[in-house]
């Protein structure tokens, strides 16, 4: 199982549905609550939110944020600051990293923030899906 974070719009979610539906069983790829909230925030109206919620539930298993995640985030911010990279990742990105590290998962993403964090924090496993050959 992997934690997934994507810059979600309808096209990206549809692409994920097509790729994941063809290659994985339900729940083989996980999503944590912060990512789910970000995806649902992108809804343009109530029916769209319902469709997003249904698609997310059909595709992804749930990965819970650990109780000590905020302690990890604070430590990560400190370490990133020491390397001049403290603005590289938003707090929500660090919360996703904390969740992935806690569960021993790889973050699948489509932005450079996670790669930057992983260069500083070696325990963060990440894969930019733009660089995956299929």
Task: Walk me through this protein's architecture.
The protein is 54% helix and 12% strand. With 134 residues, it is mainly α. The strands form two sheets. Strands 1-4-5 form a three-stranded parallel β-sheet, covered by helices on one side. Helix 6 links the parallel strand 4 and strand 5 (125-128).
Keyword list:
134 residues, mainly alpha
Binned, the helix content reads 40-55%
Largest sheet: 3 strands, parallel
Distance between the termini: 18 Å
Low-confidence stretches: none
Radius of gyration: 15 Å
Series of H and E elements: EHEHHEHHEHE
Q: Mean pLDDT, nearest integer?
A: 84
Number of helices: 6
**Percentage of residues in strands:** 5-15%
How would you summarize the topology of this molecule?
Layout: E1 3-4, H1 10-23, E2 30-32, H2 33-41, H3 46-59, E3 61-63, H4 69-82, H5 91-103, E4 106-109, H6 113-120, E5 125-128
Parallel strand pairs: 1-4, 2-3, 4-5
Summarize the entry for a quick read.
This protein has about 130 residues and is mainly alpha-helical. Helices cover about 55% and strands about 10% of the residues. It has helices spanning about 10-25, 35-40, 45-60, 70-80, 90-105, 115-120; strands at about 5, 30, 60-65, 105-110, 125-130.
């Amino acid at each position: 199982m992997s934690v997934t974070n994507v810059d979600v719009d309808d096209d990206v979610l549809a692409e994920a549905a097509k790729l994941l539906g063809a290659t994985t069983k339900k729940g083989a790829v996980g999503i944590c609550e912060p990512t789910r909230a970000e995806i649902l925030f992108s809804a343009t109206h109530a029916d769209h939110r319902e469709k997003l919620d249904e698609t997310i539930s059909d595709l992804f298993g749930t990965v819970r944020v650990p109780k000590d995640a905020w302690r990890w985030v604070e430590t990560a911010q400190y370490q990133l600051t020491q390397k001049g990279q403290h603005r590289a990742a938003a707090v929500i990105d660090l919360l996703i990293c904390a969740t992935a590290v806690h569960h021993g998962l790889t973050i699948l993403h489509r932005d450079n923030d996670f790669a930057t964090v992983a260069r500083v924090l070696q325990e963060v496993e990440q894969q930019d899906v733009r660089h995956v050959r299929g």
